[in-house]
Amino acid sequence: MIHVNPHYQKLQASYLFADIAQRVRAFQQRRPDAELIRLGIGDVTEPLPPACIQALHAAVDELTRASSFRGYGPEQGYDFLREAIARHDFQARGAPIAADEIFVSDGAKCDVGNFQELFATDIRVAIPDPVYPVYVDTNVMAGRTGAAMQDRYEGLAYLPCTAENGYVPQLPDAPVDLVYLCSPNNPTGATMTRAQLQAWVDYARAYRALILFDAAYEAFIRDDGLPHSIYEIPGAREVAVEFRSYSKTAGFTGVRCAYAVVPRDCMAWQADGKAVSLHALWNRRHTTRFNGVSYPVQRAAEAVYSPEGRQQVRALTDGYLRNAATIRAGFQAMGLPCTGGDNSPYIWVDTGRDAWEFFGLLLDKAAVVCTPGAGFGRCGRRHVRISAFNSQANVEAAMQRIAQALA
Amino acid sequence: MIHVNPHYQKLQASYLFADIAQRVRAFQQRRPDAELIRLGIGDVTEPLPPACIQALHAAVDELTRASSFRGYGPEQGYDFLREAIARHDFQARGAPIAADEIFVSDGAKCDVGNFQELFATDIRVAIPDPVYPVYVDTNVMAGRTGAAMQDRYEGLAYLPCTAENGYVPQLPDAPVDLVYLCSPNNPTGATMTRAQLQAWVDYARAYRALILFDAAYEAFIRDDGLPHSIYEIPGAREVAVEFRSYSKTAGFTGVRCAYAVVPRDCMAWQADGKAVSLHALWNRRHTTRFNGVSYPVQRAAEAVYSPEGRQQVRALTDGYLRNAATIRAGFQAMGLPCTGGDNSPYIWVDTGRDAWEFFGLLLDKAAVVCTPGAGFGRCGRRHVRISAFNSQANVEAAMQRIAQALA
């Protein structure tokens, strides 16, 4: 008899965004006339940068002729892309990362979900609260937690992120082996300073822990003092893996390209204490279970680093950051405390009431979709995440409607 | 201290195709003048069908305007593609599969590697020998085997496929819970008849086992009596998951699109005997760990089902099948027994000697790359897999060179 993975039974309810989609559909059936504005899931709305469009067309044309046709590429990604990434995203910022330490993939969600497979099931995992649910759910599925107790899983070390600590996870009281960090943060929009990241790197080195650093929103950093990559921090190459994505940077949510950085210095340990290269382990996993990213898509990602591409991506992210400033200012004017929104497309609003109740209020009274913070963890029970990914006109309209609804 | 997944240490050597690539590189350094012909890895060589090219360009153009821009799509794939698949690939053949039972993905390698995550680690897994290594390696990584003993893993039930049984896996002596089947087969090119598949479906129903049916080479079937889908077999909806791919059909190895079929009737069991829907379980996995296939790529896959697309794909596969016939006839003329090559792009040649030795011989004497059967399992120790994925001219040249080399 074929038995299921027993850990799946521990998973709570359905996935956050599916819940939201269901409630929005119900609202649309009740109010088919309402013009909905979505500031929820964090999907981009603006067209792809022209440099990427051009690269896509050119690459597709290469596939029309046997002489320039490309079939299977390297599972890790083409050198043209890995080299552009290493040069522009890391070396240009003084972060010592080589092209062969880059693993191109079809999404940071996949990478961040897959990476935990490399580790034993009995390691102790630290998860910020609030948090992107994928970090938690993939560890539940893998059997690294006990049962769910209300809104938390037994066996996970939760790192509360609240107004008191500026929404930045603090070092844990008891030793942990694997730590998920995200800066600029999803969902809070908070950013980690160099000193805060250094403290985590020092911690990981002292305890032989590993940091999974999610930098999917790096392109929104405007403050020159903030690190863009964890590899700007001395010692990080030994204890950190970094995840990046073109989804929010260049509008690739529907095009699909991302990458993971696994430095050759990065080690984990066998039960007998022998060091194992995470680069080798991830390479084995990646080549066995993945077949590379679509060739035209890799060319589009390469175009992000061209002079035109960089300018166009900057204009895109500047636009979303203007929206973020509008949202932040709007909620603050209503007397609701906010974090994020300056180096991040997300604004984390302390609503002063139950998050799903506030979500329902915005939906019913303003026809605006936000994301209830409760879906990201216990510490989000009074918060909502507002996303700046929409047109300027929609964001301004949404903020006017919200102001009226809350007046 | 961060401990690694101990099961990765059991994995033998490196991945088959990486080994081959290394030997080929060494040969090219020794003989930089040699014009290599690759009949090895099974990568396609002919350009994409024009219908797919046109669909790609059109979809890319949609991404240039906010009004037609598409960001995140449904993780399971767009309805336009799922409906085309259900209609053309299944319903048209009398296989009762609905659009919402299709899960679009970026590769059959990923699907077939990921699917085992849904099951408990102590299930008993049956694997044909020879076999596509991904079935084995992903179960090793998940901890479903013991250590490797020479060329096999403890705890797996191997199903030998030899000349005696026509290279078709027979029902096992002891009960198994999960069975991997592939028809037309990679690597042997053998196909399973309706009666053979029915026997497996009946077995799975009797033992509450599950069949993972890999039909990535279905488009090469020309014999009207052979089933294209396991769902043509009565009862299969309850006990089988099927994997398909556009890689070999429409030349998508570098474009990346595939799908899995998980019927709503398909069940697995909790330890307490309660039935669990595999459709629901896979949907949870897919939405948590995957973010959908690139939108232009899904449009290209849809175009495979247009009247032009179907004609163009037929012409492509016809061409490769002509090559296969040439290869098969060539080896048979040399007195080497073959299977496959009529409803399959692969020819499995019984070389009468050690497979890696024969691989080295073809490389050194004919500058032709094949795949040593030993890389697919113990039963392939005397075989090589020859792939028909190349131009007609190259295949003819390769067969001439091989005939000379072996003369």
Describe this structure in words.
- Two copies of one chain form a homodimer.
- The first copy, chain A, has helices at 16-30, 50-62, 79-90, 108-114, 133-141, 194-207, 278-289, 295-303, 307-333, 355-366, 392-406; strands at residues 37-38, 102-105, 125-129, 148-149, 152-153, 157-160, 178-182, 210-214, 240-245, 258-261, 267-269, 275-277, 338-340, 346-350, 368-369, 371-372, 383-387.
- Chain A has two domains: 6-46 and 309-406, Alpha-Beta Complex (Aspartate Aminotransferase, domain 1); 54-307, Type I PLP-dependent aspartate aminotransferase-like (Major domain) (Aspartate Aminotransferase, domain 2), CATH 3.40.640.10.
- The N and C termini of chain A lie far apart (60 Å).
- The first copy, chain A, is 36% helix and 15% strand.
- Chain A has 407 residues and is an alpha/beta fold.
- In chain A, a hairpin with a 2-residue loop joins strand 4 (148-149) and strand 5.
- At the A-B interface, helix 2, helix 4, helix 5, helix 7 and helix 8 of A face helix 2, helix 4, helix 5, helix 7 and helix 8 of B.
- Chains A, B: One of its GO terms (molecular function) is L,L-diaminopimelate aminotransferase activity.
- Chains A, B: Its cofactor is pyridoxal 5'-phosphate.
How many β-strand stretches of chain A?
17
Write the H/E string of chain A, N to C.
HEHHEHEHEEEEHEEEEEHHHEEHEEEH
Query: Into how many domains do the coordinates of chain A divide?
Result: 2
Overall pLDDT of chain A, averaged? 96
Q: Strand fraction band of chain A?
A: 15-25%
- Multimeric state: homodimer
Roughly what percent helix of chain A?
25-40%
EC number (chains A, B): 2.6.1.83
Pathway (chains A, B): Amino-acid biosynthesis; L-lysine biosynthesis via DAP pathway; LL-2,6-diaminopimelate from (S)-tetrahydrodipicolinate (aminotransferase route): step 1/1
Protein name (chains A, B): LL-diaminopimelate aminotransferase
Organism (chains A, B): Comamonas flocculans
